[in-house]
Amino acid sequence: MLSKFWPKKKIFVGAHVKSISHIDDKSFQDVEVNQALFDELKKQELPLIDGEKRTEIEEVILQARKDMDSVGGTIECTVVGIPAGIGDPFFNSVESVLAHLIFSVPAVKGIEFGKGFEMTKLRGSETNDAYYYEGDEVKTHTNNNGGITGGITNGMPVLFTVAIKPTSSIAKKQQTINIAEHKNSELVVKGRHDPCIVPRAIPVIEAVTALGILDLMFIS
């Protein structure tokens, strides 16, 4: 895991398993995010904020393996320490640059920033992030928009969630077609099968996030 992205600038990238199938881990918004947390997640084979969910999640993954099937999940990623003013309202918005890179990662099927789709059920008064001064530093009381306002960082942690689909290469028999013979057929994928690729995708998501943020900082 990439817990230190730009130590000289005190910018850090970290991610964890937000959910596997129907089981949810805590969010970065629920805890104090610091280097110690990133270091702890880095040690874990299945990086979770709430360690009590580990056994339940492992059982779901193992059951999928027994069923010759697979499960998907989500990854939550955050960028801490990024200054305000990075990005552009249009073609180089933080969301568009990161989404472009994130969707280049195999198995990614969706991304949401901050509360994302949950915001569609709320009013503007509930989703707007109100600003305040903490000494000379500008902060927001909430981070519903994931640290981005109008495509530009606002000084709060950038926060987004990525959807990872279940592994498509499963051992269970599936319906397909035989192009050579132009007829319907069945497919059995032989070899090694990962019942869940969510944990393996975490360092990739962190890496492309760091590349995207670095690029934005140079062009902003």
Architecture overview:
With 220 residues, this protein is α+β, with helices and mostly antiparallel strands. 26% of the residues lie in helices and 25% in strands. The chain has helices at residues 35-43, 54-66, 94-102, 124-127, 198-219, and strands at residues 12-20, 23-24, 73-80, 108-113, 131-134, 137-140, 148-149, 152-153, 158-164, 174-178, 183-187. Strands 2-1-3-9-4 form a five-stranded antiparallel beta sheet. A two-stranded antiparallel sheet has the order 5-6. It has a two-stranded antiparallel sheet with strand order 7-8. It is globular. The mean pLDDT is 93.
Largest sheet: 5 strands, antiparallel
As a percent range, the share of strand residues is: 15-25%
Q: Give Rg in angstroms.
A: 20 Å
Number of strands: 11
Given as residue ranges, the uncertain stretches (5+ residues, pLDDT < 50) are none
Shape: globular
How much helicity do the residues have?
Answer: 25-40%
Supply the number of helical segments: 5
State the secondary-structure class.
Answer: alpha+beta
Biggest sheet, spatial arrangement of strands: 2-1-3-9-4
Output mean pLDDT: 93
